[in-house]
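MODEL INPUT / OUTPUT PAIR
PAIR INDEX: 1
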Amino acid sequence: MELRHLRYFVAVAEAGSMTVAATQKLHTAQPSLSRQLRDLEYEVGTPLMTRGARGIELTAAGRAFLDHARLALSQVEAAGVAARRAAQLPKATFALGFLTGQEMDWLPEAMHVLRDELPKLEVTVSSQFSPDLAKGLLNGKLDAAFMRHEQGADDLVFRVVVDEPLVVVLPSDHPLASRRAIDPAALAGEPFIHVSATAPALRMVIDDYVDRTGLDVTLQHEADNLAMAISLVASTRGFALLPIYAENFLPGSVVARPIKGGEAPRIPLVVAHHKANTSTTLKLFLSRVDELIARVSKKHR
């Protein structure tokens, strides 16, 4: 029994017509198709279909044979796919992580520096809290990550890619929103939206700034992520201190203003990797970090 016999039989059974199967599905002459099906019935040893004025109808034997024919053809197709897949060299993988929101700036440029490697490389991307990115690097699930400099991750190597100033985020109709820059003293007594322990590095920077300047804040809420902080600012009419990249996500109801006077608090964004990672792709990526930084900086000029 040949595979073409099975294909012909299934095509005719599904079309319900010898003519339709021959001309539209199999692109063969009808006499030849009829001969092939007679050969199949002879080999099986029983009629599989009846030919009448209303077209082709399967016999009980034909209906039973159809299920097995379809299964056999699907297994043959699967075998071919498996063989072709096995013949291909497996692609190297490179896992990139991003502090949620930072991928807007850094992912396109990261892919640019990897473009020559992409045909032979499978890149995976994840967006997470910075402490989770550190865990991913430490357990080998990530090759590189754009994140904060997390404490207690001695096996990670950090390189600063940008030192971000913090800005005041407040409702667009707030009286202070009309100012080009915000004097910290003007924030005294205003409801304050802090970041939670999900962002320990940022929380430390903000706490240090509040202590250092003696800023009189009234803690209203703690936000677990950027979207939550922005929503709380809009709904409670409070303010938040957030890295400047938050400006990329502000709705019309919320604005960001620089901090006036003295040095605004800053927080570095770093690209990090495990010091024991010997990936050749990682080595290439790290060798082009300067280009990566330059490309992102150019976009913001």
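PAIR INDEX: 2
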Amino acid sequence: MERILVTGGCGFIGRHVVQELVEHGYAVCILDALLEQVHGSEAISLPAGADLIKGDVRDRDAVAQALQGVDATIHLAAEVGVGQSMYEIARYVGANDLGTATLLEALIKHPVERIVVASSMSVYGEGLYATPGGRRVDNARRQASDVKSGQWNPLSAADESLSPLPTDEEKPVDLASIYALTKYAQERAVLIFGDAYGVDAVALRLFNVFGAGQALSNPYTGVLANFASRLANGQRPMIFEDGEQKRD
């Protein structure tokens, strides 16, 4: 039976991934720090066939223990949230970049066939836009002065109104937050490592993820969780700016 290590396997995405792996006949080892912000005080229940090691991905000994007998790794452990990353910079860089580096160093001594890392849509910045003439704009940015004056949508360099387009993988990276920077560093480190050591490496740029079991108490789980939490408490959802924002 193949054994898979899932870092961050007790988180929202991690629990679903672990359940899926167990249902498909894999043995699973979870390495998770069980942070209060993510898990609160709730008891952690694991599916049969999954083992838990409580530890930080930056802890070399914990990572080495978790990798014993492992055939592949799914690396989900990370600090999440764009806003929080802008004032807890050391925390995000430490957990995301140093954590990934620690895992990759451990994989040199405990080689696996494949590693999958969770990156983020945040690496694309504002996303893809087009000018009125149909020209693609890859680096649209909202300026603080425009936002303060109520101009919510980004403009072209010629002050033209832009129309949003579906953001495809051909859009260049446009890092606009510390969180985005750490996620891009994670994915590049994993892909470079895979190429150097002959490991099949995959980076997934996850977009808005939501569903059953999502924590409503954590303000960094996304807008749908925030809306649902307020509705569940008899409050109206709080919508900023003009309410015309679009997200997939």
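PAIR 2 NOTE: The CA atoms of residues 6 and 183 lie 17 Å apart.
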